[in-house]
User: What shape does this take?
Amino acid sequence: DQQVKQNSPSLSVQEGRISILNCDYTNSMFDYFLWYKKYPAEGPTFLISISSIKDKNEDGRFTVFLNKSAKHLSLHIVPSQPGDSAVYFCAALHSTSGTYKYIFGTGTRLKVLA
Amino acid sequence: SAVISQKPSRDICQRGTSLTIQCQVDSQVTMMFWYRQQPGQSLTLIATANQGSEATYESGFVIDKFPISRPNLTFSTLTVSNMSPEDSSIYLCSVDENYGYTFGSGTRLTVV
Assistant: This one.
């Protein structure tokens, strides 16, 4: 059962335009979410996070929106740059019985066209 | 954030053999996490490694197949034992920071 879903395996965007990456989750108990970016032959790197007490968090060109009622979050990149071409993973923090772990989506490959 | 050195970066192994992956962190951390990313799949947690105690394995992963060592607060190893082609994946170690995980660069394993 995939609790965190990224239904778009790939996305192509023109340089300078907005990139919107989507993520859906099924567990309403998730209360912290992250986005990671991964380049080939490198580990994922943290990009931005959001707590469930917020519906928006912004860091430069990157903004994450959280819609708790829809169990949906999205990452907006504007303006998109060729260096943003990477695989983007969303992740949710799952806490239970004093332990925790991050559950990841399957990733979306973003290609920004020059 | 922590800096993690992971090696080897990649390897091609014969089925039936074992490979040990090493992760060295530049600071002391209580827990280290081992993930696997199979082709086209999400990152899946294999186990959590605490220093001084046995690793805690997720459902579907067992110690005999993926033994883990955690001899001190800056180092851990994951062994993939008796490999089969289905073990071909990227293996990643990670540590918990205040905001989320920092990952090593990954080990791309191909079993032939």
